[in-house]
Amino acid sequence: MFEWLGLSFLNFKWLRNPLKSGTVKDVSVKEVHTPDARTIPLNAERNPKGFVNNEIHTAKFGIVNFLPIFLFIMFRRVAYLYFLAQAALAYWSVVSPFSPYGPTIALVVILVVAAIKALIEDAARHREDVKTNNGHTRLLHSDGKVVETTWRHVHVGDIVEVHDNEDFPADLLCLYCQLDDGVCYIKTTNLDGESNLKIKRPVDMGAAAAKTPEEVLRLRGELHCEPPNANLHIFVGRLDTNSILDSEGAKSTSFPVSLNEMLLRGCTLKNSGKILGLVVYTGAESRIQMNAAAPPRKTGSYDAFLNVQIAIVICWQILLCIGLACGSLGWRQYSGYERPHLLFQVYVQGNYKNNFVYAIVLWITYWILLSYLVPISLFVTMEIVKFIMGLYINLDKRMMHEATGEFAKARNTDMVEDLGMVEYVFSDKTGTLTSNEMQLRCIALRGTPFGSSEFRLESAQGTPAQRLEAFDPRLASAASLMQAEGTAWARPVVVPSAKGDPGVTGAPLVPKGQSGPFDLQAGNDAAPPASGQTNGFMSGGMNGGLSDQPRGPGAERGQGSDAHLGQQLLDFWTNICVCHSLISEAHPVTSEPIFQGPSPDEVALVEAAKLLGFVFVARARSRLQVNMLGRPATYEILNTLDFTSDRARMSVVVRCPDGTIKLLTKGSDAVMLPLLRRGQDAAALDQATQDNLRHFSLQGLRTLVLCERILTEAEWREWNARFQAASSQLAGREAKVSQVALEVEQNLELLGVTAIEDKLQAGVPDAISSLINAGMKVWVITGDKQETAINIAISCKLIQHPDRLMICNADSPEDAAAMLDDLAHQARKQEDTTSYGALARSSRTGMPELACELVIDGKTLSHIIGTPAELKLAQLASSCAAVVVCRASPSQKAAIVRRMKRFRIEQCEGRTVRWIERQRAWLRWPLAPLLFLLKYQARVGVRMLAIGDGANDVAMIQAASIGIGIMGKEGRQATNNSDYAIGQFRFLERLLLVHGTLADYRLSRLIKYSFYKNIAFATTLFFFQFYNGYSGQALVDGITASFYNAFFTALPVGAFAIFDRPVRLLMTLQRNPQLYHRSESLSIAAFWRTAIALAVIHGAICFFIPYYAAANGDRNSITDLWSVGKTIWVAVIGVVTLEIMLVSRYQTKLFLLVTLLSYALVYPYVIILPLIFNAFNTKDPAQEGVGVQIFSNPNFWLQIIFIYTLTFGIRFLERAVIWLYRPNDSMVLSEMEALDLREGDGEARRERLVQLGHTQVELGHSQRGLSQSPLRVHENL
To answer: Hey, CA dihedral for 337, 342, 346, 350, is it positive or negative?
Structure first.
């Protein structure tokens, strides 16, 4: 209930634990020794003091604190402070020309609308908070009783019992699992979006491990761990126990704790019965809450544009007020004193004798009078429109992923307009362009390739033996031959020494003939034999790679080589079936094994192995069961060296069924090949492997290298002691473990290479083609091999000219700089000498067509980033049609985005500076403020988009102006840190071309029209000062002036911004990508031309016609102040209403209804408002009788009609000339749509338009000139 009492502000994101930053925070050596390091007693007396409780408060407001916090949020914006100052000054009756009620009512209305929006959003957060905090869980008390409680009553140090399908209420250290194998399975969908189950284990305490809940209560000790942080991948801790469960007495023992033993809040227990866990972090300090911080706040381009323009308008307002104040002072001095009836010689409040004080007071008066230059309704209208634009995105059925049923998500609508201004698209490859549905296609065993990229193993029918025959007959023949010769399974073990010597030969591991019958033609899908019936061919002796027989690319064929190939085959698939992090589940219907894990590559390999008869069966504690071609075997997992992005490999140390100890490793070729043992045939084998890797990559296949090493018992024990010591460290554990792991991952024997296909997602080539045609430059940045990346880029139509591909690979900073110079020269030469040179013009931009395409690898980038060569790379890349970056790390991805953004800003600023320098010397100083504004506009106007699907893309997504997350199979880390989330890459086309274009179009017109309508009204007030002795007198009362801004003109512009569109059919925008970001509708020049200059002209017309009609009229004319003021007020409302109807391109019935009704209500308002005042016994001379007088006078109607005819006629004629002689592309397409609707045969009309030059490919700038106007085309047709 405390959040409703207003105490939830203590849990605001900006006031929470300073470690909560939303980014992964590494724990350094220094940090774990700070006072924040956590010590938690085990089974001690409950003492929650010193730790946060388990309640979460995501809601921003409570009953008590809503008003102060909401007002703080609103008034920290400069615009709202401006309006507050205006309303406050209006209460100073000496200086205010308006009643204070009008500005106050307008400000209150705006704040109330914003408050309602905030409350609606916050109510949903409150409901979720209450539901979460009142969730049910169980506590294990010291007396052995299990008591139900709510999540809010869970504290650090408690022992919690969680059952299947229940969420963990806090971050727990697993102490006990009910399953016999001592493991539990969790689902982390709420944490990272991954649906595959993951394995967790209790703390490995050996003999002291608790096997029952009662034994858990007998444990005593302390957990020492890192302070709360947001890192989801690393946990550093140590469990010190001083009690064991046997009769030997107590002794102190320390056990390392890592993330493998942690059960994080938000995850769900699955298929495990129940677990007991020690509560480590609660509430706001849990990992999921530490990662709940919003992504870095990004500001939309138009918000930044408004900041600049409002600042300019305010400066303009200051100058106008200074001019009017000086005019008032001069008028009093030279005209006022000469008119005794005005009593200027009597100095009273408001008429001060001191000229400076008098001018200051008048300046404040004019400041209030001209406050309508800045539209108060614009800001709340923009928030509402952006919110609705976000709903359009969220509910767009054309962006729903059919496979998952997920819609696109607009997570940050503050920058929705930027979707229509993207210049660069930086895309990940795997899971973003590809489907992340991996399938094994080929393998290579010690330099010899097998399989075909055309063969679809997943679709093959028959038994595993028949699939193996179809995959590659040589493999089936080798396995069959080895089975026929039973002695062939018994091979001597060759154990290489640490120095890489050939090693010594041990005794055969398997007696002759023990392997038993094996028939390749028999079905091998049957259940495995009973446990314990192990087979010798699963031993370390089957390492054909360690035999002295010749093999590799030059090995002789025949029975001997086939037997040898069979040995290699078994070693290869054993590595795949044992070295992984997957779990196996039975299908609920077919009972077939289903594999789940965090890596799609591992799932694909183990699935392929199962199809060929090599089956991973199950895990049981530290053991792993496999079934190899019908023969079961059990491996003991001694050590696991997990995959990390820095290591780029995974290893396990296992004890084979015969007792041999092996290190099994797999990883990328870049890190694995340097770790191979060097022998006599190393050079030939290395060359053959490189050839295989290159061949697979050219087919677009992902590759992994598999290796192994046999260890003696003494070698393993010596290394394991160092490994356990490193694992027990609290400070710098990850670095020390990696260092010790590298010691054993040396002198490896190559087993082979896997080649996996990751198919392109549907629609990717067409989407990329549309983005390029829209004028965007698309980059692909991936961690894959260079050949794979190039092949994928060709497949998705990013690389159009492989023969012109420029490849930048360098081994040193000097080589990299020199190569960039050479490639830049080559690019310039190629542009001048090819058909894509000066004579070839892009239909999209009118600039020379880009000819070059660039490929650069991560190693070269490491020599470039942070050096002066960065600029050379940016210059070269900006001149290329496509760029592919391969072997890039996550930090390099982000660095590339930041570098290209800085380069584009520098380009824009450079053009501005050069333009200023070309001006005459006497003009440069006055243009200095303009230079500053243009530079600012360049900085905020460069829009970079990054799109990815995995945690390794988060840095790139956050570095970009717009971050797009793919809701794919690599979790939700990218989505959680993105501004927008989509199901597949192809939806990016519609997101940018349709929703981006609409947002850009609507918001730009909203801004221009909002300023136009306000400045038109303020202009009438300004001109009136020249005819009233610069007195500061207003034409209308404050309430009427406020209603103009907050109601009569606010509703039409809101409907206009929500419903208007440049073309009738939205698919037209997607089919014609050349329309994207074509117009400069909100440039500084366009803004001041249409929002300022036009408003001044229309305001002048609305003022001078009624004023001079009154000044020169007869006794029947409207002559009193308030009647003339109301006439001018009605005229302005009508003029701005006609303007919005004229510029609207898509007039819906609702838009017409709102617009016409808003104008029609003006007339009842003028009549009814005096009646309301009379009802409260209040007489207002500005209202009383004014409506009756003007509406009964024909001069009023004549003036109104004349003003409307003049202003609308001029604007209509202007737009007709543009449509006839200078139409833009959206006008052409609108005309095409009109032709289709009117005459039916759209295709025939479109063909005729193509003949006349109006093709979607040739749509260009309106300055380019069209052969005929659309209207005349219509006449010809």
So the answer is: negative
